[in-house]
Amino acid sequence: MTDLAESQERATGPAMRRGALGRCPSCGQGRLFSAFLKVADHCPNCGEELHHQRADDGPAYLTILIVSHLGAPLLLACYIAWRPSAMTMILSFGIGAIVLSMLLLPRIKGAMVGLQWARRMHGFGGAPDHATI
User: Fold this and answer.
1) How far apart are the C-alpha atoms of 113 and 13, rounded to whole Å?
2) The pTM is what?
3) Mean pLDDT score across all residues of the chain
């Protein structure tokens, strides 16, 4: 990669938005995921290599954080307002947490891949990623 290509700034916000929408952070056209949460090795539209990503546990942690911070106050408010049975609370909030998690997880993972691409992390910058021992 040339020095000019390495020195060009990549906009973080648009890259994260494209990733959150499930699109390539580089071109915004190709699909980011080849399966529900499996990031494609490369963009089918522009050919950008995406296998460098290291989203690992970050998206899962943020999803749990968001879902629990939304669910806990809502659970308390529903209990105080209507006093539903324990089984009603378990079923309704359990299903709600699962659905919300399934909706948020790919969006958060895509945004994290977009962030890594924009910041040239983990090999997205063209330089080889050297492991430290």
Assistant:
1) 12
2) 0.87
3) 91
Q: Is residue 15 assigned to a domain?
A: yes
- Please indicate, yes or no, if residue 103 is contained in any of the structural domains: yes
User: Residue 37 domain-assigned?
Assistant: yes
Res 130 pLDDT > 70: no
Residue 103 near residue 109 (C-beta atoms within 8 A): no
Q: Which amino acid is at 15?
A: A
Q: Is the pLDDT of residue 83 over 60?
A: yes
Which range of residues forms the domain containing residue 11?
3-118
Residue 131 maps to a domain:
no
Q: How confident is the model at residue 1 (pLDDT cuts 50, 70, 90)?
A: very low
CA torsion angle 47 45 34 107 (round to 10): 100
Work out the number of other CB atoms within 10 angstroms of the CB of residue 116.
23
pLDDT at 128 over 80: no
Q: Is 89 left (phi over 0), alpha (psi -120 to 50) or beta?
A: alpha
Give the phi and the psi of residue 39 in degrees, each rounded to 5. Answer: -75, 135
What is the domain count for the chain?
1
